[in-house]
Amino acid sequence: MKNSILVLALLYSLSAFSQKTGSNSYKIDLTNVVDDRVKVTVDATLTKLGNSPDGKYRFNFPATIPGTYATLDYGRFIHDFKAFDASGKTLKVSKKKNTYSIKGKPAKLEYWAEDSFDAKIRKNKVFEPAGTNNQERRNFLLNAAGYFGFFEGLEDLPVSLEVNKSPSLYGLSAMESYSYGNTQNFYARDYHHFLDCPVMVSKPDTTSFMLGGAKVTIGVFTENGRELSRDIYKQVETSMKAIEAFLQGDLPVDNYAFIFYIKDHTEFESLFNGSEIKIGTIFKALRKLAGKGFGALEHGNSSVYYLPDFGGTTVLDGMADVCIHEFFHILTPLGLHSEEIGNFNYIEPKMSKHLWLYEGITEYFAGISQVKGGVITKDEYLTKVLKGKIRSAARYPTKKMSFTEMSENVLDKPYKKQYGQVYQRGALIGALLDIRIMELTQGEKDLHDIILTLRDKYGPNESFNDDEIIEEFVSLVHPDLQQFFDSYVTGREELPIQSYLAKVGVEYDRNYVGPLIAHPVNDNDVKRSRLIVGQKMTIKKVGKNDFVGFKPGDKVSILDDNLFSGPQALQPGETIEISVLRDGENIQLPYIVRTVEGTKSHYIREAKDMTTAEASLQMLWFSN
Ligand SMILES: [Zn+2]
Predict the structure, then answer these.
(1) Could you give all domains of the chain from N- to C-terminal order, each with its CATH number?
(2) Which whole number is the average pLDDT over 485-492?
(3) What is the predicted pLDDT for the residue at 533?
(4) Can you tell me the distance from the alpha carbon of 251 to that of 247, in angstroms, rounded to the nearest whole number?
(5) ipTM greater than 0.90, yes or no?
(6) Which comes out higher in pLDDT, residue 564 or 72?
(7) CB 200 within 8 A of CB 141
(8) Which DSSP state fits 305?
């Protein structure tokens, strides 16, 4: 009781200090697109600007926005900027980078915003999910940074936006909004919240569903007019249920929007279904696709996707993976972040050191939640997801820069190029950290518990100190965890993949040399044609050490890869029948499974003999 009174008193005094008197009020007219540009009006009387000591008022467009980790300079897209005083007189304006300096107190601003989708720029191209699109009567992607600036120091004022649009279009956003006729009004807590809630204005193709008490909406615009929201829902449904189970029904949001812009590339369909492959089509495809920022960007209550449609079901392939990743960002950084993100500096952005937490753990949770929820098997997780991460992570220069150094400097060379490792090495850091936490707490806690504890403490509106979070994290687990951060996160040591996976009963070798199950064709003393026709390969020559009994001309049905690794793998001494078409007749040749000395890179498999401790940690790792 005492505590809550104290908190109330504190809240009261805080709100008295930060009393909000004005608001940022914008109008945008989407009914009149001229040269890919739309007109924006700012009512600066509502901002209640104080008196500037030097008589200048600075109106800024963001240099970048959270989550993109790249310089975007949105000021480049603003044209014909005009400022007027209360009597309607034009004020002098000068521009430097993303900032307009206005001489005298403005009452009204007017300017035109060009879209980034069609802008002919090469340097610091805007990643499409953070970009803007002005396509009359069809689609507008309003990432606020590309349209709406702010007066320096007034980012905390509430925001209102009035959109003038055709009545057949509707703006989908996580922001509160009201629509009537040609107008839709949006409201945000402050400028940060406004930028965190992109709006896509288009003809509605939406599907909604409930998840852990939250209303989730999938909204889609496709350039070719395909209705996809229902198909996307079906594609992500089981994965979303797995997330719900992983979060134990405790979703930190009550509404969420998946916003999709689907680019039409069906002209290249033949490249994907193999019906006709022409060099010309390939070159055309490469030219058209080069520099396209296919991908997604996360926000607190929404995420924006810019994905290609190559015809057929290609647009849905892999859709679940990217949706899960973005959705998990509601934990980090959106529910747990440092000052650098919480109080984002749009003019001179400062990056946080903790991309291992924001991107690494998000990507790790995206994968592990799917095993825990039964969407993929433990073997698929190990041999596909985890192995893929290990293989790609090995390409990054651990010894040259630590993960935290890379994060902090990610806007600059040479760190910029190393950003991609957040999804590989970052996810592996998540996996190993999870294992170490379970080990140190004897299964009492896991990574998910620690993240939730921190999320409950900080949440979307409080920020942690960038220099103190590791210490706090360690204090929630065990003092020995400090060494993990010192060596692998802030330090430059190679990740201890083999020894850590061993703790959960998984064997891993970077370069394995030893017995492997012999493939009856590939590891045999026979030569086969390289071409596989109708799922069959033809034996061309048979050597004297052949151990199956092939004859030249035999057509051998190809064998399932799972027979050679994973839990269904063959055991030495076992006999299997191999189907062979010989002289037009189907026959079966018995193969007594043998081993062959061989090498394999990044060989990962479940250990045959596990200690009880290893087995129980493995069980914890793979279940919710
Ligand atoms: Zn991400």
Answers:
(1) 20-202 (2.60.40.3650), 205-330 (1.10.390.10), 339-506 (1.10.390.10), 519-593 (2.30.42)
(2) 97
(3) 75
(4) 7
(5) yes
(6) 72
(7) yes
(8) E
